[in-house]
Amino acid sequence: MSKITNKIEAHDRSISEVLDDKKYTVDYFQREYKWEERHIEQLVSDLTSSFLDEYRPEHKRKDIENYNSYYLGPFVVSVKDGKRSIIDGQQRLTSLTLLLIYLNNLQKVLGYTEKLESLIFSEKYGDKSFNIQVDERMHCLNQLFNNQEYDLREEDDESTKNMAARYDDIEKSFPEEIKNDVLPFFIDWLKYNVVLVEIIAYSDENAYTIFETMNDRGLNLTPTEMLKGFILSKFSDSKKRQKANELWKDAMQKLHSYEKDEDQRFIQAWFRGQYADTIRPGKAGSKNEDFEKIGTRFHSWFRDNLDKANLVDEASEKFEAFIDKDYKFFLKAYLNVLKAERTFNPSLEHIFYISRWGIANSLSYPLLLAPITVSDSDEVVNQKMDLVARYIEAFVVRRSVNFRKFASSSIRYTMYTLVKEIRGKNIMELQGILKRKLDEMEETLSEIAIFRLHGQNRLFVKYLLSRMTSFVEKQAGLNSSFEKYFHNHEGKPFEIEHIWADKFREHKDEFDQEYEFQEYRNRLGGLILLPRGTNQSFSAKPYPEKLKHYIKENMLAQSLCELNYQNNPNFRNMKNELGLEFKAHVQFKKKDIEERQELYKAICEKIWER
Fold this sequence. Notes:
It contains 26 helices and ten strands. The protein has 610 residues and is of the alpha/beta class. A six-stranded mixed beta sheet has the order 1-8-3-4-2-7. A two-stranded antiparallel sheet has the order 5-6. α15 packs parallel to α17.
């Protein structure tokens, strides 16, 4: 091996130095982009909180040079023949590119012209190429850059779908207090004060060795490990310290079986849910408070706030009890939340639902842990957490049917205030607070009467139809499940079926303009769920021809058919007990959609206003 190929370099680089007019390819085994909403939400929260902790309204932009740097971690590149290939760090760099595209779009809306394009793409001989170049992502990135949104195509791979979803997550989580004349300050800080360590290898062999070492044998202490070290240092008995250390290690293994940074999310949720009292007001220039500090440096926050955990005198026996009781108790509850998100548990059913359509985990997890106390039985813990999850679901459904966003940036203050209100409350107190909160909401379910499908809410409409379909089937005594309709793992996926075919000419007796026809065609009352394939084969057929097939489908589809009302005692009993105005529709005209929409509204009220 030559001297140059054996060479390894490491340099600290600002984001500007890493991306400005640079070009990277992505190695084949790093090709997939896999970040989830929680990762993006954490990245945006960490960056914006760190910036806002430094920013003051009286500052000039040159003052940013004196702001603290923010370390974003290392990335590894292999350099051969002048070409740079990302070996490790592609997820982070791709996410930064999405953030930069979002900031570039945001500044256009606000009327700013900060130089960001060269960090996103570069041009040569009139051809534009993105600085992290993966051919199959080009269309998505172009659309996001030029149109600020992306409509998915059938040929898109999972990485592309993920990128489009994560861009939406950035928009949802970006704080309002920076969407003004503070934005140029944040852009400067991001470009010049956010630092990565670039590790360069000049051979693939060395690059892969570095990659394996960083991922398998990394020795950097995490905030969780620093917290553990501090707590265990307070133990006076070495045997008890060893026992606590084994307990901690076992807990880490369980948490890491879900995600490698699940331990940090657990402690953030626990401390926020049980101890945090203050939050940064939603205005620029405000300092970070408990909620933000726990999100970025919970180990140091804990050392500075021992009184909130009743550890102020630092007695050994109190730290021992803290690990043996509090830590074990909240860990168990948190692990049950993670299990309930993945596998349906009737006693925690609403946690399953909000993991499919809910608020950001940084908000929901503290809320779920806030009301429980170490003296609660397992049954009471589950009751409390499911009550909170049920509230969260009702909250997001109401916001969604009213076309209102529930991005973490817009509801964080509301939800963190609620954390304090419900902390340690018994079941009756908790029920009262959550009911009052829903009663105080401006948004109600009445808007379902005119709710419709449009280009940006297809997933939510499928969520609604899945919840309604499984609800009526369960109420009729059938073995049904929400997950079957929303994300079927065992058979063909279900898709939204328009009861009306997309043929305006067949409805000119009721509509003069096509846009009026399309508005009614997309109304919730004109939609059902059908398995893929069935949906495609029926989509263009006239209603009378579809009707004879609907009787073989789910109960919501069957309810359109007259035959369903003849020999179906389970259905009739459900209809009568719930007082729902089901009826057969021999034809399906404008009035039928309106009647069906009222039925769907009544079903939703049964689900979310019980």
